[in-house]
Amino acid sequence: MKKNTKYYIVLGLLFVVAVLLQYNTPKPINWTENYSNSSKIPFGTYILSDLLSDLFPNQEIKETKIPIYNTINYQTNTNYIIINNSFAPDEYDTEKIFDYVSSGNQLFIAARIFEGPFADSLKLVTDGANYFFNLATHEEKYVAYVNFENPKLKQPNDYILRKNFYHYYFTSFDTANVLVLGKSISQEKKIENINFIKINMGKGSIFINTLPNAFSNYFLTDTLNYSYPIYALSNLPNQPTFWDEYYKAGKKDASTPLRFILNEPALKFAYFLLIFSLLFYIIFKAKRKQRIIPVIEPISNSTTDFIGVVSSMYYQEKNHLNLAHKKINYFLEMVRSNYLIATEKLDETFIQNLALKSGVSIVTTTVLIKKIDAIKQLNSNFSEADLIHLNKLINTFNQLKTR
C-alpha cells in the first residue's frame, strides 16, 4: 500500500480537478435533431406536443412508440402525426399507411428527406440547403420566406427562416390528386419552391411538409415563426390523434444499462473518468513489473498513406464540387464497364438503357442522372449537404441494381 500511495494521490487529485472542471463548465446547447415529445432541446418537440390538446380540443391524444402497422389497424376518422428529419418506411409499412389513409384517416408528415417505397410510390424527391449556425442573421441571401397558399391561413407577412434552419422543398411529386398548401422563396436563388402539399387518397389525405425544423421547440419560441406549425396542423380535422414516437432520428429509450449511462452527461463523464483512471493505474503499475517489449514497426502501406493524404487535403479544402465530379466520373466509368453504355450524352435514351440493364426503376435512375447532369453544369455553390445527397442517390442505385 505504501508503494502505491503516490498513485492514489495522483488519481485523487485528477478526480477532484475533473469534478471541479465539470461543475464549472457551462452546459453546451444540444442541437441534436431528435424531435421527441419529451425533449426540451432546441430540435425537440416538447412544446408542440403540449399544444396538441389545444389544437384538437376534447379529443384523445395518443403517443405511440411502436411501428405504425401495429397502431393504425381498424382505425377510422383519426389523425396520425409524424415529425422527423427523414421518413423511409419499408414496403409493408407503406402498404399499411396507404390502407389507413384510404379508409378515411389523415396522415401528417414533416420531414426533409423521403426514401424507400413510400417516396417511390408518391414520386417524392426533395432538395434544399442547410443554413448553418455560424451564419450572421444579416446575410439576407440565406433568408427564406415561407407562407401558406390557403387564403384563410396565408399571413400578410411571410414567415422568415434565417440561420439554424434546413430549407428543403419538393423537386418532384405525383401531381395526381395533389393540392399545394405552402411555398417558400429563398433570397439566395430567387426561386419559388413548394414545401407543403396535400395528397388525396381514397377517403383520407396525406399532408407532407418539408420543414420539420419549423415544428421544433426552437421555432415555436421564435416570435416571427411560432404560429407556422399551428396553422400547418390546423389543416387536420378535430378528431382523435396519434403522435408518433417511433420514426425518430434518436430513440429516447435506452435499451441497455450502458446506453442509459452514455445518454446522461453526468454518468457518461463519470464512466469515462473511471475508465481513464483504471487505464492510468494499469499503465504505471505494469511499467514497474513488465519486461521491456521490443517495438516492431508494421510494414508501411504506402497506398493507404497516399489515400489518407489525398482525402485529408480534400477535406481541408472543402472542395465539395471537385469531390462530386470525381464520384460522378467513377460512377460513369462503372456504367461504361458494366453495362457497355456510352456516357457522353445523359439523355432520356441513356436513362432508359441504364434502367433496363441495371434493373433499377426508371424513377430512381432518372432522379440520379438528372442530379448528375445538373452537377456537371455547376461551377460553384455546391455544399456539403449537396455532396451527401449525391452520395445517397449513388448508394441507393448501387444497392438496387441487379447486375
What is the CATH topology classification name of the largest domain? Rossmann fold
Our count of helices gives: 13
Query: What's the rounded overall pLDDT mean?
Result: 83
Portion in strands: 15-25%
Overall tally of structural domains: 3
The CATH class name of the largest domain reads Alpha Beta
Rg, rounded, reads 26 Å
CATH architecture of the largest domain: 3-Layer(aba) Sandwich
Task: Give the % helix.
Answer: 40-55%
Q: Give the low-pLDDT segments.
A: 132-138
Write down the overall geometry: globular
The largest β sheet comes out as: 9 strands, mixed
Category by helix and strand content? alpha/beta
Terminus-to-terminus distance:
68 Å
Along the chain, the helix and strand elements come as HHEEEHEEHEEEEEEEHHEHHHHHHH
Number of strand elements: 13
Report strand order across the widest sheet.
1-13-2-4-12-11-10-7-8
Question: What can be said about this structure in brief?
Answer:
This protein has 403 residues and is α/β, with parallel strands linked by helices.
List the helices and strands and how they pair.
Elements: H1 5-24, H2 46-55, E1 61-64, E2 79-83, E3 86-87, H3 91-102, E4 106-110, E5 113-114, H4 116-122, E6 125-131, E7 144-148, E8 159-161, E9 165-172, E10 178-186, E11 192-201, E12 204-209, H5 217-220, H6 228-233, E13 241-244, H7 257-263, H8 265-289, H9 302-317, H10 320-339, H11 348-358, H12 362-376, H13 384-400
Parallel strand pairs: 1-13, 2-4, 2-13, 3-5, 4-12
Antiparallel strand pairs: 6-9, 7-8, 7-10, 10-11, 11-12
Helix pairs in contact: 1-8, 10-13, 11-12, 12-13
